[in-house]
Write a structure and sequence with these properties.
With 174 residues, this protein is mainly β. Helices cover 12% and strands 37% of the residues. Strand 9 and strand 10 (150-153) form a beta hairpin.
């Protein structure tokens, strides 16, 4: 199968955009942009996301290590792009992150989900990282969306009650 075609098809699924941060055993914390994030369970509270096996950030996500998922707000496309790049430093190293036991915060994010790595699973060219959720915080703002390799905003133009209902299994409309 052509990976470019598959990537194009995957891109048709509109997602939110997150930045995942963690404390790294190396010289500075890590942060990566991810849209492969999904809830797993409410009881116990679990979330998962996927990271490329070739990512230099992967070593920061060992079992029981802390990380934070930040759901980005509509005005934060520049932050998503900043953390999507590979290689170069993404944080200015200073005493702040060294003196705090929690992963760096992305200011202005729609939500922050603090976790600990509970499971790591192989998933082809990615690692599936499952996090046990320890703390959440959120604010009221519009989310950043991602579709077909482009950032966008969610529209509140139509409520769920205005959408045509799904047909029931007998083929009639509910």
């Amino acid at each position: 199968m052509d990976p470019r075609e598959l990537r194009k098809v995957f891109g048709l699924f509109t997602t939110g955009v997150t930045v995942v941060t963690a404390i790294n055993p190396g010289p500075e914390p890590v942060g990566v942009t991810a849209n492969s994030v999904t809830s797993v369970s409410l009881d116990p509270p679990l979330i998962l996301w996927c990271l490329a096996n070739k990512s230099s950030s992967l070593k920061a996500f060992e079992l029981d290590s802390p990380f934070a998922i930040h759901i980005l707000a509509a005005h934060q496309a520049d932050i998503a792009l900043h953390f999507a790049r590979s290689g170069a430093s993404k944080f200015e190293v200073d005493a702040w992150w060294r003196s705090h036991p929690t992963p760096p915060d992305i200011e202005g994010a729609l939500a922050r989900i603090e976790c600990r790595v509970s499971h790591l699973y192989p998933g082809g060219d990615h690692t599936i990282i499952v996090g046990a959720i320890e703390k959440v915080s959120a604010r009221n703002a519009q989310p950043l969306a991602f579709h077909a390799s482009r950032f966008g905003r969610f529209s509140n133009d139509q409520s769920a009650s205005e959408v045509s209902p799904w047909p029931d299994p007998r083929g009639t409309w509910l």
